[in-house]
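Think of the structure tokens as a kind of shorthand, similar to the way a musician reads notation: each symbol stands for something richer, in this case the local conformation of the backbone. In the example below we present two proteins back to back. Begin with the first one, reading the sequence and then the tokens, and try to describe in your own words what changes along the chain.
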Amino acid sequence: MTQYLSTRNTALRAGFIDVLMGGLAPEGGLYLPVEWPRLSDDTLRGLRGKPYADVAFAVLAPFVGGAIDDDDLKTILNDVYTPHAHPHTGGFRHQSVAPLVQLDANQWVMELFHGPTLAFKDVALQLLGRLFDHVLKARDTHMTIVGATSGDTGSAAIQGCKSCKNARIFILHPHNRTSEVQRRQMTTVADSNVFNIALDGTFDDCQRIVKQLFADEAMRARHNLSAINSINWARIMAQIVYYVSTALALGAPDRPVQFVVPTGNFGNIFAAYAAVQMGVPIKRLVIATNRNDILTRFMQTGKLTQGSVHPTISPSMDIQISSNFERYLFELMDRDDAALRTLMNDFLDGGAASVTPEKRAEAHQLFAAYAVDDAATTATIADIYARTNYTLDPHSAVGAQAMERALADGTLDAALPSVTLACAHPAKFPDAVKAATGHHPALPDSMADLFTRKERFTVLPHSLDAVRAFIDKAQ
């Protein structure tokens, strides 16, 4: 059976179900498999042309390690990833789940916005909700899910879990710091087990309070807390699948591919790193950040330094503390949990930490990074729309601009396929898209009445005590 350890305690061993339901390791670390499973070249070749659900089973079964019966897992994956299989959750509107669109000879966009909330988070969270439901029913128990969102995670988590009969879900979002579409996708869900908290602060404040809640052992026990943020390993695991399916579509394992990933929290691009560990031939990974460029600065200097969070037109990336980066730092530091704990304490308590020049050079063997400001983001939306009639949302445009720069300076090999991720539907950010292109992107028919639906949310100060009291009293 597959075993997991913690980034802050390599002696710890946990099974998949405990990792799924617990989210965060007891001492505050993040879970990773003790050993990375590998997909052979023959296995990869055998998956070419297979439905997304079949690829998902091949990728995910080694991580689940028999903790869920194979037939049950196949049923869950077929239900989630067969289009329209689950009308009550919206399902995925495209047969490929994560289809490719060609922009130029060797430049591609992977569309990840064909789920019920029009964002890449759906790909993992539709599955996570079904996994939670399966385990809770089997155990005849209840759970409280707590998460923080900078925009898209919250609505995707709610859509994934609103039908879980044995779970409540509390989502914290930064008050007045998401787009109206993002907010309404969360706050107009009427299910009684859904609670939206608008925190008077930034996303980092939301994320900090969620971590503090999980560090409170009495709170965890009282409510049987579980995480749905990208700190939950099962979310990372699910996202590996679309890197594998895309690589296969572009010639893997017989041709390497390259990915450009717009990211703030490092979860999405860590899934690409995991695909590399599994044997997928990914030559280069490009980190694309907005003005909140802590990850870009790390790749340039080897230093992690906290700064202020700057609001941008790509708000889901307005982050200065990238929680999932701890997973990569753990790998970069040769899985030395003591060294990782020291580095994270320096960063979280002192505001700065660094790795050696040798480790920075090692990171550069796979990763490159670019920061894209709002002006360049807008210009990229306009340019690609004018040249190709294809509309990007601001987050996806950050990736597209980083891809252009990486190709221009030789970081990406122009002879190989380069794929940037379209993480959200342009209609989620209509003002930014209209400012760049002159046209207002329409929401899909299923969301046509979004702006007339009644909202439900509670504004709270960024106080651990206030949030804890709210969860304790919620019915």
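Once you have a description of the first chain, move to the second and do the same.
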Amino acid sequence: MADKLQLGIFFGSRSAEHEVSIISALQLAAMANPFKYEVTPVYVTRQGEWYIGGALWKLETYVNFDPRRSRLTRVFPDLTARSRALLAFERGAPFRGERRYAALRLDCVIPVFHGLHGEDGSIQGLLELMDLPYASTGVAGSAVGMDKVMMKRLFEGCGFPVLKDTALTRLQFEKDPEVACAQVEAALPYPVFVKPANLGSSIGVSRADNRGQLVAALELAFLLDRRVLVEQGLEDPQEVNCSVLGFDGDARPSVVEQPVREGSLLDFKTKYLAGAGESGMAALSRLIPAPISQEDTQKVQRTAVDIFRALDCKGVVRVDFMLDRARGQLFITEINTIPGSLAFYLWEKTGEGLPYRALIDRLVDLAMLAYREKERAITSFQSDIITAAISRQSGGAKGGKT
């Protein structure tokens, strides 16, 4: 039997969605085929420290996290291209300092971060520097997909249907809250939804129906981000989501779902805590397929694929929509380039069904395909620029003239 592929699952990091990432990552690690992969969970703490070790497979490890008690090994990514190593240090003989060694070498990574410092292009840039195949959208698409303000501008530029919005910065609001609120009210009628630009999982999202609620919503959002998006609200929207899987021209949509919510906002508590937590997004009540017309289903799926291609996505994403029932219009809410639970529950019910284990295999295949495509590009070009510059310097030092 051929050697197993060394598969790293990267998760955690300095994000308000830290716990959600842990749940999604352990779900994935448990479902990966043990006969094909040597799976290593790689945990990034809230302080940005990286660890590996057997205890990371247990949820209990993350309660009152103590790497020494859990016998974890702290590692550091080696940025040398194609090293693909996570380095560790051990204390040597007295007075000889520490010895550096490769604690792990990886063939592929599936990033399972949610939010900043992981889903926003930062880890993707690190993996690009390491020259390590990875199964998520690249640097640019991840960055745009994380930032709701930039995301909306791109969607508008591409002609995708989006709700009206305006944006504010923390400094604008602190300088004159009344003027900032007046700007919002001049642009949008109530109700509005206030969203931190770079957070997901509905963290910090609030509905405002008047000036007082708007001030409170902005104060909350600015605790979490320096930029916020304020978006037109709909009175009776129908929320539907669609996942897309693929790379380059090969992208296919999943079945469409309708999340079940209470009240006017599908919030963090409803998404991740109502179902006892352990199952993450998979525990959320939902209707699959969504109770919408075949025409609307096809429009959602077609638009989701178009968005996937516009952001040059890779792997699996989820695009969230709102249907305005009163006017029969479809609006895009956002794209999640690393969706909660990797949207496996949608793929299990798509077509003939794609089990989670098969979805993981597909993600690895797509990561390797994208890496091979990257390798085809020329990344260096030998020229005589430096030699010519040295020659000019030498001529100048001798006082030569042309």
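Compare your description with these statements about the second chain. The chain has three domains: 5-134, 145-149+152-160+236-373, 164-232.
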